[in-house]
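Practice set, problem 2.
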Amino acid sequence: MKNLHLYFMNKKAIVLCFVLFNIHLMNAQDDKIKFGAYARALQQSNTLGKSDTLNPDNTSKGNVLLDLGLNINPDKKTEIQAIIRFNNNFSGFYTAGASASLRQLYVKGIVGKYFNYQVGDLYLKLTPYTFFNNNAEGSVNEAGIFSDLRRDYTNYENLSNRGNAWWQQGAATNFAISFSNSIIDTLKVDAFFLRNRASYAQLPSSFHAGGKITVTQGPRLKLAFNYLDLYDLGSNVKIDSLAKSNPVGSGEIDLKIINGKNVQLALIGEGGFSSYVFKGDTAQTKSGFFYDAGLQLNLKPQNLIVTANYTYVDPLFYSAAAQTKRVNYGNTPTTLANYGNDPKNIMTRGITVFDLVRDPSVYNQGIVRNLMAYNPIYGNAQPYGKATPNRTGIELNVQYKDSLQKIVADVDAAFLSDIVGEGSAELRSFIVLKGGIDFNIHKFFDWKKRLILTTGYKFESTNRGGDALQAVSLVNNLVDLGLEIEAIKKFSFLVGFKMLTAQGNEFVAVRNQYNDITNYTPMANINVAQNIFAFGLKYRFSDKTYLTVQNHMFDYKDNTTATNNYSINQVLVMFNMNF
C-alpha cells in the first residue's frame, strides 16, 4: 500500500497531467498544446570537520525532480501555462517520499487588439524604490561553479530566478497607444492587483495594487510615473486596529541632453514619496520621500558607460516591495545546522556565504511590511538596496566591454552617510567599492574552447566618531575568483574561490511593528573570516543542459572565539536540464 502513497496524496495533479497529455495527443496536429520541462537530479554529501562530534561522519541528501510545463492555446489570443512538479527523494524506497504538486499556473491573453492581461502566478518589477527584489548578499561576480548552483538550484527553488522581479499571485494588465501628429509618441500603461496575504485569525487580509504609466516623446525624452499601495483590510476579521497601508509613488525621467551617433549624455533620475499609515487605536502616519538624480555618459565607440548620481532617502521613507530582503537572517541553515563536541552546549550555525550559495531555506519569498533584520558583515551601507532609509551621498558606476567581449567590467563606488544619527548625535559614513571583471581569454587568441577568468571584489567600511560607547569602525571585504578551462569540447574544469572577512564593531537597530527603533544590539569585537574553495568538472550537453561534479570546502573562523570555528566539506553531483 505504501507504493500507492504518491497517487493518493496527489491524485488530482496526476489525473490532470494525464488528461492534458491525452488532449495533446488528440490535438497535436493543431499545435494547441505544447510541452516544456525543467529537470534536475542533485545529490549532496556533507561532512563537518574533525572537531565536531555531534553529527554523523557523513550526511547525504538528494532528489530528482521534473517540472512539467503545459502550454495550452485554446485560441490565438489566450494562453494557459501550468507547471506540475514531480519530486522523489533519493532516501525513499520506491515511491516513499515522492510527491506531485502544482507549482505554477497562469492564464494570459489579449482583449481586443490592445489590452494584455495575466491572471494567476506572475513576476513583477518596477524600480529600485518602488517594487524590486534586491540581489542577495555574499556575491560579486561569482565564479561559474558558484553561480550555476545559485541560479539553477537556490534561486530557482526560491522563485527568484527572474532577476529582480518578485514572484506574486494576482492579476496584471497592460496596453500601449501610439500617437501621430502629437507631442507624445507613445503611452504605455501597466497595472496590477495582488494578494499579499490571506486573512488569518489574528491578521487581516492584505493586498497590493498599483501600476506604471510611461510616456515617450521622441528619442530624447521618456517619463514614467509609478504608484502602488500595500494595504490591509482589517474589517475582514474586525481588527481595524491592526490594519496598515503603505502607498508609494515616484516619477522617473530619462532626458537625452546629447543624442549623437557616438556620444550620448542623459539626465536620469527618480523622485517620490511614501506613507506608512496605521489605523485604529494606534492611528499614525509616517511620511517620507527620496530623490535620486544624475548624469549618464555613453561613449559608444569605446563601449563605455559612466553614471554618476546623488541620492537622498529620507529616514521615514518606507517601501515594502523595494525594502524587503531576499535573505531572511532569522532562518537557520538546513545543512548541518548544529555543531560542536559538547551535547550540553550545542552550537548553532548562522547564515554564511556557504549557505547563501546553496540553501533555498535561508531565502524569503514574500513581501513584508517591516524592515527585516540584517547582518552588517555582509553589507552595512545599503542593506535594503537603494531604498535603504536614512542614507544620502554620491554613487558612481562604470561599465565596459569591448566589441568582442574579451573584457567585461562593471565597477561601482558609493560614498554615503546617515541623514540623522542612530543612537548617537554623530553620523555614520560609508564607503563602498565594488567591481567585477571577466577575462574571456580564449577570445584574445580566437580559440574555440573556453578559457575564462572571473574576478570580483567588494570593500565596505563604516565609521562613526564619538566616545568609546558610541564609536563605530567596521571593515568588510568580499573576494570572488573563478576559472573555467574547457579541455575537451563541452567538457570543462571549474575552480572557484570566495572569501569574506569582517573586522570591527557596529550597533544594529532593533525595530518594532511600526518600524520605530527601540533599541540597538551591539556587535563588538567582530573578527571573522569565511572562505570557500571549490573545484569540479562540467559537461555541457547544450546551453541549458549540463552535468557537474563538484567538491566545496568551506572554513569558518572566528578569531575572537575559537570554539565557534568549524569547517564543512561538500561533494555534490547535479544534472540540470531544460527542454
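Problem 2, part (b): a different protein.
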Amino acid sequence: MGSRLFRGPILSFILGACLFACVSTPVRAEETAAATEAHLVARARELKLWNHPQWINLVHYEKNLFGGYTSQADGLEFFTAKDGPTNPEAELFATIHALFRAPTPLELIRPKAVSDPGMYEALKKLTDEFDKEARAAKYPPAIYGQKLEEKKRALLGIVPDHPLCQFPARLRFFERELGWKGEGLPKIECFRLDEFRRRVDAQSVSIVFSSFFLNNPSSTFGHSFLRINSGLWQKYGKSRNELLDTGVNFAANVTTNNPITYALFGMLGLMPGTFLTVPYYLKVREYNDHEMRDLWSYDIDLTPDEVTMLIDHIWEEQSTFYFYKYFTENCSYHMFTLLDAAAPRLGLTKRLSFYVIPSDTIRVLYRTPGAVKAVTYRPSARAQFFYRLGNLNDAEREALDKLVDTHDVAALDPALPKESAARVLDAFSDQIELVSGDDLARDGSEAQKLKQRVLVKRASLGVKSETIEVPAPDRSAPHLGHGMRRASVGFARENDRGNSVTFGYRFSMHDFLDPGVGYARNMQVDMFGAWARVLTRPNQGFRSQFEFDELNIFKLTALTPLSRYYEARSIRAELGWKKMYDRDCEAGDRRCFPLNLEFGKGWVVDPGTHETLTLYGFLGGRFNHSPHYRGSNIRLGFGPRVGAVLYLNDDLRFGAFGEYYARIWAEDDFVFKTEATLRWGFTKGFALDATARRERDVNEGLAQLHFYY
C-alpha cells in the first residue's frame, strides 16, 4: 500500500516533467529561432549588407539612371519581397525571414528522379510542343515564361522548394558575412538540390567558346557557355574525361521560326531566356560534330569556396528567367553574371561595353587579372578529319577517295598494309561523321548502316588506332583577335569630283581583309556601320560637302571551299543604304543613296588547300529603293560577283572583286563595279589600306587608317 502511494507521486512528477519538456522544447526552439533571426537582421542592418557587391550580384541588380536598383531577373519567383525587383534592402531582409519560415507539407515531398539524358530529351520535347501552343495562343513573353516554367515543374514532378532549398547561395552569403553557422533554421532535406550537387560533382569551372557558325543566325558571333568540370571521371579511369562534365547554357526560348521575327524579338528583348544544365557530351555532339565548330575552353581560376558558391547560384537561377537581348543580355553576358555572383573580385560585367558579343567577352575574360589559368582546344569533326587527311600518303588518299565515292567497304585495296588500311578506315569513319552527323543519330539510317560496316571492317584488321591530337590552331584562338569595333579615317580622290576626307565606324566585327589572328579565314561579319565623307569643295558650306557613303545593318559572307569530302555552303547577304553612281539618279553628280538588299549563293575554290588563296563566285539578286530615281523608285538586279582573297600572312591581305548586274525598271540595263584593296595590319590594333575602285564612269582611289578596339 505504502509502496503504491510512493510510486504515485514519483510517476506523476516524471510524467509532468516529460509533458513540460515536450511542450516547452518547441516553444524554446521557436524563441531561439526568432532571437537568432532578430540578431541576424540587426547585424545585417548594422553592416548595411544590402550594399555588399556580392548581394547585388546574387540578385542581379544593376543601377538605374536615377541611382536606384533594378534586377535583371524577370521571373517573380526569384524574389521574396514584393518590391524585391527594385529594392535590395527589402529583398535581403525578406530572404532572411523566409529562410526561417517553417516548411509546408508540400515542401517536404521527395520529387521523382529523372536521369540526365531523360531530363534533357523530355525538356526538349516539352519546349518544342509548348512553342506550338504558345504561337497558336499568342502568349506575350511574360506569360510564355511563366507557363513554360509551370509545365517543366509538372513534367519533372517538381514541387515548390522551401527558401532554404531555393536559395543556397544566398544562405552561404549570410553565413559568411554574418559569422553564422545556420543555427535556428528549420530541419529540411533539399532533395533536388542535393541531387544536383551530386550530379555535377563540381571540381572547377571553365568558359567554353564555340567558334563562329554563319549557317545559323543565332550563332553568327559564336556562342559561349559554362562547363562544370566534374570529378566523376575518377570512378571510371585514371584519365580525366571531360565528356562526363556538365554544360550550363543560357539561351532564348524561341517562339518563332521566322528569322526576321527572331532577329526583331532578340533585339527588342521579347523572348524569355533560361539557364539549362545539360551533359557536356550533348554540347560536344551539337557543336563539335553537327555544326563543325571548334571549342575553346578557358579554365577559370576560382577558389573551392567560389566554385561551391557558383554551383549553388546556378541552382538558384532555375527559379527565374531573363528576357533575352541579342546585343546586351545574351549568352555570354549571363556567363559573366554567374561568375560575378560567385567571385565579385573579378568584376567581369563592369569590363564590358554597352553591347556584348561572345568573341569580345572572351577577350575581356582573358585580359582580366586572375581570371584564366589555362586554355585548351577541342577540334571539330571537320578539323579532326582534315588533320587525318593531311597525314595520309598518296596511296592511302587514293583508297580513301574510292571509299568516299563508292561507299563500298569491300572496295578497299587488299594490297594495302594493315596499318595503312586502318588509317584509311579511320579517316573514312571521320568523314561519315562530318557529312552525316544528323543521320547517324537516327536508327536504321543508311549512314548508320555504313558506319557499322566500316567499324566491322576496321575491327577485322586487328590494328590499334593511332591516337591523334589535333594541334590547336593558335592563330584562331578567339582571345587573340582584334577588337570588334573599328574606327576609320582616310583620304579619297574621285575623277569627277576631286578630293575628300573619309571617316567611318563599325560596331562589329570582322571582314576578310582585317588582321586575321583570332578569326576564321574566309568569313565576314560586319554589323551596324556608318561611312561618310567631306568633299573639299571651295566656297561651299559643310552641308553641301558632307555625304554618307554607307549605312550598314549587316554584311554576312561565308566562303566554304568546294570539297569532295563534304557539302560546301557559301552565301553572302547584305542590308543597308549604300551610295551608288547611277545615271537613273536625279542628282547632278548622278549619286543616289538607295536602300540596298543583296543575297547570293556561290562556289568557292581553294587552289592550294591551305586557305592562302580563295577564289569565289556568287550568283545573286539585288533590290534597291530610292525616291531619287527617275521613274520607278525600285530597281531589281540579278547577276554574278566574282573575286579573290589572297592571304599573304595574317597581317597582310589582298582582295579584289568584280560584279555585273542586269536590271529591270532602269535606264541602264546593265551595271558593273570593280574594286581591289590591300590591307596591312602594321601593329596591334592598327591597319592601313589602299583601295582602287571603278563604278561605271567613276574611278576612285582611297587610303585609310583603321583603329580596332
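Answer key, part (b): The first strand starts at residue 61 and ends at 63. The CA atoms of residues 90 and 220 lie 41 Å apart.
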